[in-house]
Amino acid sequence: MTTTAIATQQFISSTQLLEHWQGHRNLTRRVIDAFPEKELFEFSIGGMRPFAKLAVELISIAGPGLKGIVDHQEEKFSEEAFQPKTKEEILAKWDSETEVINLYFNQISEERFQEMFNLFGQYEFPVYQNILYFIDNEVHHRGQGYTYLRALGIDPPFFWERF
């Protein structure tokens, strides 16, 4: 059997990946902001968590996950450290975590994206797949937020407007 090496070109740069992720974060921030305060913390459908809890999960994963990747720390995931009481607290933390993401993402070398990393001591995948998990998880939960907003009679932001 003969094997042939195929040269591949890079599909997306790390800078473009970060811009794509930050576009999703901008949109998710607008979804958080679209909720009335009471409903952000209390409204749910079918036993799903209120959107405030989903936002706290996202806040608790992205920045700490990237920090863990950069520092080679496989610490357990925890949502307990941040217990917001207001929408403004969530939005302020969202904004500060955006800066944490920028700080740590930019410390990951191109070579490290291919390294295996055990995210939160639970998920052993290449670093790039862990980052895609952060994005996928956010998109998934934002979809729940869209459902909640529509059930509340609120038009959510257009999903393609990520600025």
From TrEMBL:
Gene Ontology MF: a single term: metal ion binding
Signal sequence annotation: none
Keyword Metal-binding annotated: yes
Keywords, in A-Z order: Metal-binding
Sequence positions that bind a divalent metal cation: H141
Record-given protein name: DinB family
Keyword 4Fe-4S: no
Family: Belongs to the DinB family.
